[in-house]
Amino acid sequence: MNIAIIGAGPAGLAAALRLHQQGFAPVIYEKVREIKPLGVGLDIKVYGVKELEELGLLAEFEAISNEAVDSIFYSNHGQEIYAEKCGTHMGYQHQQRFVHRGYLQMLLYRTVLERLGPDAIQLGIGLERYENTAEGVRLHLETREGEKVVKDVDVLLGADGIKSVVRAQMHPTESSPKFSGIRMYRGVTVMDPYRDGHTILHIGAPRIASMIVYPLHLDYEGTGKTLVNWVVETEGEEMYEDWNTPGEVNDLIPLFDDTKLPFLDVQQMLRDAKEVYVYPLVDHDPLDRWVDGRVVLIGDAAHAMYPRGGNGACQSIVDGRVIAEKLAAHPENPERALQEFEAERLERVNRLVLANRGEAYEVIRRLVQDRTDAQPFDDIEQVLPMAEADAIFSKYHALAGQPRPGFEDGHTTGFRTWEAEDSWENQHAVR
């Protein structure tokens, strides 16, 4: 079976590796001339790590990433709202890890070339349009030099991201990303480690001044410093979608005047940023179909979502496994394989897209802000009861495909930590 993939991002590369495991030899077409390690941080959840392990890449992935141990949520004043353990520390069978998007992409890229051969990725050639034929799919491609190329294949996977050419043809009235009214500033800072070097912080309130912070590398380039990824969301006017647009960090610093954490000066972290980019927070409205004959959308082309909850990249990687399994199960009937893929994945992932649009589990910070009128609280239990927070987190994790261990019988595995002169274990005692 001749399979073409449009796009050499994580979705397309992971799909190629999964297809190779099933005995296929797909070819990826990518319009850029060179793959570079661009981007900032990704939070790879336990099921994403499981996918990478099944690809035989766990050791290599661990070498370029950092384990997540704790996830802690704070108000705009720096008061703790909620915390949970991550990965194996929560009871899952796999770790949760932080990684630079570009490093993950390059790992997948090198592996595709090693396993499928140097011709498996065709750079500098992009898709203009496709057409379904009686025998399969005809690709109308164009090189960066303007040369027109026509290829006939059995199946086409559109993994060409939020501005997908494949999606635009399949859904011409539903191909423009929707702006949320929020600008996202993303940056990295080389700094001393905070806490134990394995904690993701969720600070502030969505739609006002929200910050996510997590460490990508503990000994960055042998300096003993930590490379920390941070993301700030704040309301702003719509802007051109370009991940490489520089952001002005001085616009962000005053937003955190009231945020006081004993272990991290967030304003100094912003001042010391190595690089800062600004991008409009966008996604797509969920689609009612991902399949057109022998053409299928995967990854952001199918289900671009807000980067809340850390599931966008992970869900894209899952797509590759499921589509490979379906094609392997029905090699003589690709149309059936694609329809089964859509039936298994579309509704579940669409619910996740909408959940992320509604702030996902980050909603607990907005709830606290609303219930306290953005003022400091005396007792978080009177503002956001543990049982309510647990229910929010359990529902979202289950929706993403990783139900929280310990909740099957109603047992609470969530906890709150308290900054005190006490042992690490006592600070993190299960409530």
UniProtKB/TrEMBL annotation:
Residues 2-353 form the FAD-binding domain. Transmembrane segments: none annotated. It comes from the Bacteria. InterPro entries: FAD-bd, FAD-dep_Monooxygenase_BioMet, FAD/NAD-bd_sf. The keyword Oxidoreductase applies. Residues 404-431 are annotated as: Disordered. Keywords: Monooxygenase, Oxidoreductase. GO terms for molecular function: FAD binding; monooxygenase activity. The keyword Oxidoreductase applies. NCBIfam families: PRK07538.1. This is NAD(P)-binding protein. It comes from Gulosibacter chungangensis. The lineage of its organism: Bacteria, Bacillati, Actinomycetota, Actinomycetes, Micrococcales.
